[in-house]
Amino acid sequence: MDTLIQFMVATGVVDRQIRSSKEKKKCRAGAVPVYKFCWNDGFVVTAKEARLIAESLSRHDLLSPAFLGQHFPRAKITDKATVDLFSQLIGLWVPYNRVAAANNGYTIT
Fold first, then answer.
1. What is the pLDDT of residues 64-102, one digit of tens each?
2. What CA–CA distance (Å, rounded) separates 49 from 30?
3. How far apart are CA 90 and CA 83, in angstroms?
4. Across the strands, what pairs with 106?
5. pTM of this prediction?
6. What is the pLDDT of residue 82?
7. Number of domains, the chain
8. Is the dihedral of CA 64, 49, 98, 4 positive or negative?
């Protein structure tokens, strides 16, 4: 999940400053608070938030060397296995959020 959080923060769809539900009113407009993904406490990602995630991750070339180099400076982006792993994660996460957007979101458990 940490890698997916990094991708979502990098695209601007997750507000990493919002670390608890007490701060959720301070969340940037059009962003999802990061605390929803940090713990398995039953937080709900709404359909609207799932749609924002899918759209944001689809708008960027997440696997480009420039994007990966900027947002994952410690990753071995020249290693095919690393890029393949990133590709697989995004390849699952984007469709998952699209389906969730059409079906009332999801709960983190």
1. 999 999 999 999 888 999 999 999 999 999 999 999 999
2. 8
3. 11
4. 45
5. 0.92
6. 94
7. 1
8. positive
| Domain housing 69 | 2-107
In order, the DSSP letters of 48-81 are: HHHHHHHHHHHHS-TTSHHHHHHH-TTS-TT-HH
What single DSSP character describes residue 28? P
Residue positions counted in the chain:
109
Distances (CA, A) of 35 to 6, 29, 59, 69, 72: 13, 16, 23, 25, 21
Looking at residue 86, its amino acid is F
Beta carbons of 53 and 8 less than 8 angstroms apart: yes
DSSP state of 59: H
